[in-house]
Design brief:
Layout (H helix, E strand, L loop, with lengths): L6 H7 L25 H9 L14 H14 L3 E5 L2 H10 L7 E5 L4 H10 L6 E5 L4 H7 L4 E7 L11 H9 L4 E5 L4 H4 L9 E5 L13 E5 L1 H15 L5 H32 L5 E5 L9 H7 L6 E6 L2 H11 L4 E2 L9 E3 L11 H7 L5 E5 L5 H14 L1
Bound molecules: pyridoxal-5'-phosphate.
């Protein structure tokens, strides 16, 4: 790959490995194993394989390597490791580097499975975890400890779309040499500048915008070569959460259109937000790209776009939210996001159902809150659909 290529060129050509047939579209290598010419070459490969030599698909495979190299090129990361799901990436990034006695500092507004890993699993192994309001730099400063080894956060957060100042949090973390891990789904690789802002490890659930068509689960861990090869690779190789070659091919080909899709979705989300502000039945419209968002300046500096998701909150609570959902004709009721299809979700009764009422209140997950992930439909059809459903709510 030419180092001067811009992200959209990298998204189309980065990471390609052509076979002797010179295929135009990247091949799917559906093979778990590889054949060696001689016993000596098998031995040599087990001692040290170069980046085009493979041993077993749990360790790596040409199609998986193409996906890893291509997304690393888009994100501006030295290296990447693909995983079976977003949660395999989240759990590996933590478990691969932490040990008994370590401390983790995390923002409290998290995807509920991430919360489970931090709150339920890590403490079983003697790892302590503290949660803070991620938007308060004072809380980050106060809660950091000499033994803090990892700082974990999501930006933009789900479903209330809060933005955390990555540059400032990274400075606080690096004072004690803690690594900053960002679960970056809502920023997408298209808008992310996380590594340039000082973040050490970026994670995506590729199930979301990267696939973008609701087909396959996947995840990716991006960082420097040292972290990926000495911390992540041995852990992934031996614990088994690797991505399948078929999934890697879906994700690889999807990267070619990611930039176009995400920009189109973000443009429609912006238009939708402008129309929804001022609707009487809504007590809140949350869209990071709207000037009324509390952190609008930070959003523009850090992401440069409001992203593809917005949340609305009905004054009349769950009844109104359900009437809205049940009246939608174009948008689908589901819990994925980043998809070509517009998806509406009621977090309080689905994705965040498990949380106690106090926790929901603390996180702003009210009974009237609906999250809308904007898809690729014509924006006029979408706006008409959402407005007619708001009227019926
Ligand atoms: C979806 C999601 C995950 C989990 O990803 P899976 O691919 O479903 O395992 C983790 N974090 C965030 C922010 C997500 O949106």
């Amino acid at each position: 790959m030419d180092q001067n290529w811009k992200p959209r060129t990298r998204a189309v050509h980065g990471g390609s490995r052509r076979s002797q047939y010179g295929e135009l579209s990247e091949a799917i290598f559906l093979t778990q194993g590889f054949v060696y010419d001689t016993a000596e070459s098998a031995e040599a490969r087990f001692i040290k394989a170069n980046s085009d030599e493979f041993i077993y698909a749990r360790y790596g495979n040409p199609t998986i390597a193409m996906f890893e190299d291509r997304i690393a090129g888009i994100e501006g990361a030295e290296d990447a490791f693909a995983t079976a799901s977003g949660m395999a990436a989240v759990s590996a990034s933590l478990l691969a580097m932490l040990r008994q006695g370590d401390h983790v500092l995390s923002a409290r507004a998290l995807f509920s499975s991430c919360l489970f890993v931090l709150e339920e699993i890590l403490p079983r192994f003697g790892i302590s975890v503290t949660f803070v309001d991620g938007t308060s730099l004072d809380q980050w400063k106060q809660a950091i400890q000499p033994n803090t080894k990892a700082v974990f956060l999501e930006t933009i957060s789900n479903p209330t779309l809060e933005v955390i100042d990555l540059e400032e949090v990274a400075k606080i973390a690096h004072q004690v040499d803690a690594k900053v891990i960002v679960d970056n789904v809502f920023s997408t690789p298209v808008f992310s500048k996380a590594l340039a802002l000082g973040v050490d490890i970026v994670i995506y659930s590729s199930t979301k915008h990267i696939d973008g068509q609701g087909r396959a689960l996947g995840g990716i861990i991006l960082s420097n070569q040292e972290f990926i090869r000495t911390i992540i690779e041995p852990y992934m190789k031996h614990t088994g959460g690797s991505m399948s070659p078929f999934t890697a091919w879906i994700m690889l080909k999807s990267l070619e259109t990611l930039d176009l899709r995400v920009h189109a979705q973000a443009n429609s989300a912006q238009k939708m937000a402008e129309v929804l502000y001022g609707q009487q039945k809504l007590k809140r419209v949350i869209y990071p790209g709207h000037i009324s968002h509390d952190q609008f300046d930070l959003v523009m500096k850090q992401i440069g776009s409001g992203g593809t998701v917005l949340s609305i909150d009905f004054s009349d609570g769950q009844g109104a939210a359900f009437r809205f959902l049940n009246s939608l004709k174009v948008a689908k009721i589901s819990n994925n996001l980043g998809d070509a299809k517009t998806i509406a979700t009621h977090p309080a009764t689905t994705t965040h159902q498990r949380l106690s009422k106090d926790r929901k209140d603390e996180l702003g997950i009210t009974p009237g809150l609906v999250r809308i992930s904007i898809g690729l439909e014509d924006s006029e059809d979408l706006i008409d659909d959402v407005l007619q459903a708001v009227k019926k709510a």
